[in-house]
Structure formats: structure tokens, C-alpha cells
């Protein structure tokens, strides 16, 4: 265990970061690059959930599935199929077989001190680390302590104490259950339904509300539900588990089936039997084990942004976003504050609010930036919207035979600039950044019309969208 660097016998660092996910790593990297010292404390794998149990493995699984699906909708190509063992091998390779040595070296090469162990606060600017070897060390921060501890899964009360899967198991799947019930209809549920079905599970989704991906424009739900249904997934809306029984449940390890069959009785009184259940019911900041109470604080103080000047919580732990790129943005912003020329830059607040960008890697992909129509109206904007089907635009229609896609923009009448966009389509994630730039820079519609999309690309959707809202 590396608790001290050779030049730092007092365990004193300018910045102490608890949690070595992408957000903690980015913060440590940026402050060290600007001349401060940083310790990065991690009790599991350096790289965080994102690298081993969330973004990276899920996208490693989904990309070949997307290519296989494209091959089924392109005449001139023989449809290709998924080979489950090869797909799992690809996932294993992309997560470095769940070893983090290379990632730890990368951090150390940058000049960051990586400290293996569980970190908790034990006073102002003070962090106690319980190492896996049983030793305890105290680290002292000259400037700030940052909590970048990520999230834990929400467990609905009816599943308390019953061993079932959460998203970690689904991304690390080793045993493919023949019958899988997924509870939830958000990004985890929709993405995991796609890869588990492709791996051979017969998937049933229990969705409490009437929509999939309910945080996006309402048209998204129908498009994704149609595609998941076509893949053989049974989606049951307005349903949730009222009773769960798994007599021989046992935790055999991450990604392994956790015992014998599970019987679920729904609120409507139906009984469903499955070989595994995946809870995709949201996640909450992992703040329970950092001992905020030791410095007179609680998790509510984090969520209400009521922290002393020496303590920050960013990334998923901060409760504002649960997206890697948004957390990394916060880390870059905080690093800039900490390394600016101001005498006490930590007195500044993280007050910049970029538009939120997100891509859900279903097929078609769902990409969004900024506000939906409903959210814009609720925020008091006077808006105009435009929508277009990919099939109606020559460049986009060439993506696949019978292409499935739709785009929508939300324009603020006062500034005549975009405040939101949603793109659903085969490669929509790669198309999003044009919309993100338009929203972030508040580019007026007439100026956007001067950026001429190439024929025949899917970006030609912009011509139609902007004509609809143009003066
Ligand atoms: C299945 C799934 C797929 C996702 N896909 C995407 C995607 O495609 N794109 C996207 O933008 N977002 C995605 N997300 C969300 C994304 O994973 C998170 O937003 C991201 O991981 C947040 O990064 P973080 O650094 O804040 O936390 P994490 O990546 O969760 O890292 C936190 C780290 O802190 C460590 N830690 C916690 N407590 C302590 C402690 N007390 N002491 C020491 N170490 C500690 C943990 O072990 C962990 O390594 C996905 C989430 C899930 C569940
Ligand atoms: N590609 C991506 O960007 C990506 C992929 C996966 C996850 N994520 C992020 O990770 C986080 C977690 O994702 P998620 O899909 O688990 O969360 P979510 O909050 O987006 O969705 C949770 C779903 O579970 C349902 N639910 C909640 N409690 C329930 C209960 N007690 N019983 C039945 N249903 C219940 C909700 O109605 C919703 O459908 C999100 O913030 C998400 O944006 C992002």
C-alpha cells in the first residue's frame, strides 16, 4: 500500500480526493498538472465504477449488438449474429479483466499519490484511510478534501434482504440467466435489456410508469419500446413487484446468478417466475461511509450544497448529475478554481451550469442536450419546436433500410436560439455535439443555417429542423 510518497513523510497534500473514479481521477490529474500535490484514495479499483462496472463494460457489450442490428437492416450485407462468449470476452478485455494495475501506474506517472484503502473524514481537512492490510493512516489536506465516491444502487423495499442483481452484476455478467426480469425503465434498464437479450436471456421489463426513459421527450419511449419489443423483450408498463420470494437466494459473486428461481407477484396479482432479477431502479450518492457526521455534516448538506470551504462533493457523489462527462466537467472547473491565481480560490463557488448532455446507447441511440419541451415550458420559456423523422431526410434515410429515427429541437423565442435538442437514431450519439455547441453557445437560428450539412449525411436533419423554426 502506497500511503506516502518519498517526498511526503507527513502525509500532507494540497488536495485529498476520496474515490478514484473518472471524476476523482480528473480532479487529481488537473491539480497536479498545475503544481499542487494530490492524494487519491480508493478502496476498490482505480478507475471507478465507470471503468469496470458501468459505462465502459456496458458500451463494450452494446457496440457489437448495434453493428449486428445494422447488418440486419442493410440490403447487400448478410445479417451477422452475436456470439455470446466472444461478446463477454470483449467486455473482459475492455475492463482489463478487472485489474487496475495499469490505471494505478497511469495516475502515479502523473505525479498523483494513490492510496489504497477506505477513506473517511475525521476532522477538518483530515482523512483517515483504513488500508486493506489493516493499517490506518491519517492524511492532511493543505487546501481541500473532495468526495468523489460515486453512487450505490437503490433497493425497493420489497427486495430488501433478497439477493438479486444490480447494474454491477449486469455489466459484469458471467452467468446468463435464461429468464431475466428487469425492474425499471431508465437508461440502465433499457441498455441492460438490450445486451442481456442479445446474450440469450428471455427478458421481461417491469416498468412502474407508462414510459421508458421518462426523463427524455415523450416520443422517445414509443420508439425504444418498439425496438426492444422487436428484439423479443416483454415490456409490462404500470407494473411493479408487490411480493418477492427466492427461498435459496445466495450471493455467489458479482455477475453470477444469485441462487434458484425467483417468484414475483405483481401489484396486478400476476405471478412471474425468473432465474434472476435486475434492479435498475436508480442510484443515490454513496455518502454513508465517509463519516460526514465526524465534521458535523450530513448527506443533506452535500445535496443542498451547504459544505464548508475546505470540502467538496462532485461527480455522482455530489447528487447533481449522474453522468461521467458532467462529473468530469465539474472536476475540471474545481481544478481551475483551486489552481487559479486568486488567494483563496476555494471561496469561489462552482456556479457554471452547462447544458446537460446524455446518450443512451440503445438501438436507436437516444441523444439529448439541454431542455425538453415540457421542461422548457415549466421553466417559463416562450418556445417554438420542430421535429423531423430520419426517414423523411435523404441523408438520414440512407443510414439503414427502414431507418428508425426522429429529431426535435426546442428554440427560445426571446433569443431565437436552441435551448434543447433530442436526436434518436442509429448514430445519434455522434451527431449530438453539433446540437450541444448550438445550445451552449446560444447561436441564433439564422447563423446555424449558415452551417451547411453535407449531402448525403444524417446531419441534413438540421436543414428541415431549422427551416421549421426559422424566421
Ligand atoms: C450500468 C451503467 C452504465 C452507465 N453508462 C454511462 C454512460 O454511458 N455514460 C455516462 O456518462 N454515464 C454512465 N453511467 C453513469 C456513470 O457510471 C457515473 O456517472 C460515473 O461513474 C460517475 O463517476 P464518479 O467518478 O463520480 O464515480 P464512480 O465511477 O462511481 O467512482 C467512485 C469511486 O469511489 C470509490 N469509493 C467510494 N467510497 C469510497 C471511500 N470511502 N474510500 C475510497 N474509495 C471510495 C469507489 O470504489 C469508486 O471507485 C452509467 C451508470 C451505470 C450504472
Ligand atoms: N448511457 C448513459 O448515459 C447511462 C446509462 C446507464 C445509467 N446512466 C445513469 O445512471 C443513473 C442510474 O440509472 P437508472 O436507469 O438506474 O436510473 P433512473 O433513475 O434513470 O431510472 C430508474 C427507473 O426505475 C424506476 N423505479 C424507481 N424506483 C422504483 C421502485 N421502487 N419500483 C419500481 N420501479 C422503480 C423509475 O421509475 C425509473 O424507470 C442515471 O442517472 C442514469 O442517467 C446513464
TrEMBL record:
Q: Which cysteines are joined by disulfide bonds?
A: 50-55
The protein's UniProt keywords, in alphabetical order, are:
FAD, Flavoprotein, NAD, Nucleotide-binding
UniProt record similarity statement: Belongs to the class-I pyridine nucleotide-disulfide oxidoreductase family.
Q: Give the molecular function GO annotations.
A: dihydrolipoyl dehydrogenase (NADH) activity; flavin adenine dinucleotide binding
Question: Which positions in this protein are listed as binding NAD(+)?
Answer: 184-191, 282
Ranges for domain Pyridine nucleotide-disulphide oxidoreductase dimerisation: 357-463
Provide the cofactor note recorded for this chain's UniProt entry.
Answer: Binds 1 FAD per subunit.
Provide the cofactor list for this protein.
FAD
Q: Which residues bind FAD?
A: 59, 119, 316
Question: Where do the FAD/NAD(P)-binding domain residues begin and end?
Answer: 13-330
This protein's record includes keyword Glycoprotein: no
Cite the Pfam families for this sequence: Pyr_redox_2 (PF07992), Pyr_redox_dim (PF02852)
* Statement: the UniProt record of this protein carries the keyword Nucleotide-binding: yes
- The identity of this protein, by name, is Pyridine nucleotide-disulfide oxidoreductase
GO BP annotations listed: 2-oxoglutarate metabolic process
Amino acid at each position: 500500500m502506497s500511503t506516502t510518497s518519498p517526498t511526503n513523510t507527513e502525509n500532507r497534500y494540497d488536495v485529498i480526493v476520496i474515490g478514484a473514479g473518472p471524476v476523482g481521477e480528473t480532479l487529481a490529474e488537473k491539480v497536479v498538472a498545475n503544481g499542487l500535490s494530490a492524494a487519491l484514495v480508493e478502496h476498490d479499483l482505480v478507475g471507478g465504477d465507470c471503468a469496470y462496472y458501468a459505462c465502459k463494460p456496458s458500451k463494450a457489450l452494446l457496440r457489437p449488438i448495434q453493428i449486428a442490428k445494422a447488418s440486419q437492416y442493410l440490403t447487400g450485407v448478410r445479417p451477422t449474429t452475436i456470439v455470446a462468449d466472444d461478446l463477454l470476452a470483449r467486455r473482459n478485455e475492455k475492463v482489463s479483466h478487472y485489474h487496475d494495475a495499469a490505471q494505478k501506474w497511469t495516475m502515479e506517472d502523473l505525479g498523483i499519490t494513490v492510496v489504497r484503502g477506505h477513506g473517511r473524514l475525521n476532522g477538518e481537512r483530515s482523512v483517515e484511510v483504513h488500508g486493506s492490510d489493516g493499517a490506518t493512516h491519517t492524511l492532511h489536506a493543505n487546501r481541500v478534501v473532495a468526495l468523489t465516491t460515486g453512487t450505490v444502487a437503490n433497493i425497493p423495499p420489497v427486495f430488501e434482504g433478497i439477493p438479486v442483481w444490480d447494474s454491477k452484476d449486469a455489466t459484469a455478467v458471467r452467468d446468463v440467466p435464461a429468464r431475466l426480469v428487469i425492474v425499471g425503465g431508465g437508461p440502465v434498464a433499457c441498455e441492460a435489456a438490450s445486451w442481456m437479450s442479445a446474450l440469450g436471456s428471455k427478458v421481461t421489463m417491469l416498468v412502474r410508469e407508462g414510459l421508458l426513459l421518462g426523463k427524455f421527450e415523450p416520443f422517445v419511449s414509443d420508439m425504444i419500446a418498439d425496438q426492444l419489443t422487436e428484439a423479443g423483450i416483454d415490456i409490462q408498463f404500470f407494473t411493479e413487484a408487490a411480493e418477492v420470494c427466492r427461498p435459496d437466494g445466495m450471493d455467489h459473486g458479482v455477475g453470477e446468478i444469485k441462487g434458484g428461481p425467483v417468484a414475483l407477484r405483481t401489484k396486478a396479482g400476476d405471478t412471474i417466475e425468473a432465474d434472476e432479477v435486475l434492479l435498475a431502479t436508480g442510484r443515490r450518492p454513496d455518502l454513508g461511509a465517509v463519516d460526514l457526521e465526524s465534521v458535523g455534516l450530513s448527506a443533506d448538506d452535500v445535496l443542498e450544497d451547504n459544505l464548508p470551504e475546505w470540502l467538496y462533493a462532485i461527480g455522482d457523489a455530489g447528487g447533481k448529475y449522474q453522468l461521467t462527462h458532467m462529473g468530469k466537467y465539474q472536476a475540471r472547473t474545481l481544478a481551475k478554481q483551486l489552481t487559479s491565481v486568486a488567494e483563496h480560490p476555494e471561496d469561489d463557488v462552482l456556479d457554471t451550469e452547462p447544458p446537460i448532455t446524455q446518450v443512451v446507447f440503445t438501438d436507436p441511440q437516444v441523444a439529448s442536450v439541454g431542455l425538453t419541451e415540457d421542461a422548457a415550458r415549466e421553466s417559463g420559456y416562450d418556445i417554438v419546436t420542430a421535429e423531423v423523422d430520419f426517414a423523411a431526410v435523404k441523408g438520414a434515410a440512407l443510414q439503414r433500410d427502414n431507418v428508425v429515427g426522429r429529431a426535435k429541437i426546442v428554440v427560445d423565442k426571446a433569443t431565437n436560439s436552441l435551448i434543447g435538442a433530442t436526436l434518436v437514431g442509429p448514430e445519434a450519439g455522434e451527431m449530438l455535439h453539433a446540437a450541444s455547441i448550438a445550445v451552449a453557445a446560444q447561436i441564433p437560428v439564422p447563423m446555424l443555417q449558415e452551417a451547411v450539412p453535407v449531402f448525403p449525411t444524417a446531419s441534413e436533419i438540421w436543414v428541415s429542423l431549422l427551416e421549421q423554426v426559422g424566421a
